[in-house]
Design goal:
Helix 8 packs across helix 9. Strand 5 and strand 6 form a beta hairpin. A six-stranded mixed sheet has the order 3-2-1-4-5-6, sandwiched between helices. With about 280 residues, the chain is α/β, with parallel strands linked by helices. About 45% of the residues lie in helices and about 10% in strands. It folds into two domains: about 90 residues, Orthogonal Bundle (434 Repressor (Amino-terminal Domain)), CATH 1.10.260; about 180 residues, Endonuclease, Chain A (2-Layer Sandwich).
Length: about 280
């Protein structure tokens, strides 16, 4: 058990940002004499979800927070301001520092040999992947993963450079329908001018730096940070030698991979040939 959770009660509004968010929603809703179904209609969700958010057992989406700021008088954007704190609780404590860095990044470079990384996953792909671990908070994990993708669509979006092994596109997660949606999403990203997607052809051989997934975050100010995926947890590296080694490995992967245009064509080809 982590130190953060050892002597605290996650249902206590004084400790839990998630519970505090829910309590504030309930207070404002009851102050207006509004029922949960009425708030659910305004927020475009179900009454059961409103109940779970109010009790602190579900992480809200940003759209829910935005709806609360519209429905509740004089909120002045309070629920949107509270939302990032509530969302953080859906991430494992060890992953939260990385999320803070990712949100500040101007360029995100990622490599994965087996799976699509979370920043480009569809909700269906994320659900199929995450549920294999049989977590109790599957819905929250999916919500948190998809919400991370807002860094790619914000007012000043982060630029994404993604290198994947070709086998990632043939590694079926969920079913063919899930993969159709996922590859269509990947193709859209590959065709976005500000992003880059490159595929390393699967020729049956193992190439040096292709064994482990890793990523690099670059910032407007400050040095790059490396993130290495691992079990049971990933870790971040900021030492100059570690960063330089990761940069060299990523440059090698880009050189080995097909060009962005060729990769987009390959994505479309696999989408048609494997999942049509």
């Amino acid at each position: 058990m982590s130190v953060e959770n050892e002597h605290t009660d996650p249902t206590d509004p004084a400790w839990s940002a998630l519970k505090h968010f829910g309590s504030e929603v309930q207070i404002e809703r009851e102050r207006l004499g509004m029922s949960r179904p009425e708030l659910a209609k305004e927020a475009n969700c179900g009454p059961s979800l409103v109940a779970k958010i109010e009790t602190g057992s579900r992480v809200p989406q940003l759209e829910f927070a935005q709806a609360c700021d519209i429905v509740f008088p004089n909120s002045n954007g309070r629920f949107v301001r509270l939302w990032p704190l509530a969302l953080r609780l859906a991430f494992p404590p060890w992953f939260r520092p990385y999320i803070d860095l990712e949100e500040k990044a101007t360029v995100v470079r990622m490599f994965h040999p087996l799976l699509l990384p979370g920043l480009v996953q569809t909700p269906e792909y994320a659900t199929a992947l995450l549920k294999t671990g049989r977590p109790e908070n599957l819905d929250d994990l999916v919500t948190a993963r998809i919400e991370r993708q807002r860094i790619l669509t914000r007012e000043q979006p982060a630029r994404l450079w993604l290198v994947l092994n070709e086998r990632v596109l043939r590694n079926v997660v969920g079913n063919e329908e899930v993969m159709r949606g996922q590859l269509a999403r990947l193709r859209d990203i590959a065709e976005t001018p500000t992003h880059r997607v490159q595929l390393v052809r699967d020729d049956g051989r193992q190439h040096g730096p292709m064994a482990s997934p890793f990523g690099l975050l670059s910032f407007k100010e400050g040095s790059d940070v490396v993130h290495v995926d691992g079990f049971p947890r990933g870790y971040a590296l900021a030492e100059p030698n570690d960063v330089l080694e990761a940069q060299d490995a990523y440059d090698l992967l880009k050189a080995m991979a097909a060009s962005p245009d060729e990769s987009a064509e390959l994505i479309n080809s696999i989408l048609k040939d494997w999942y049509s």
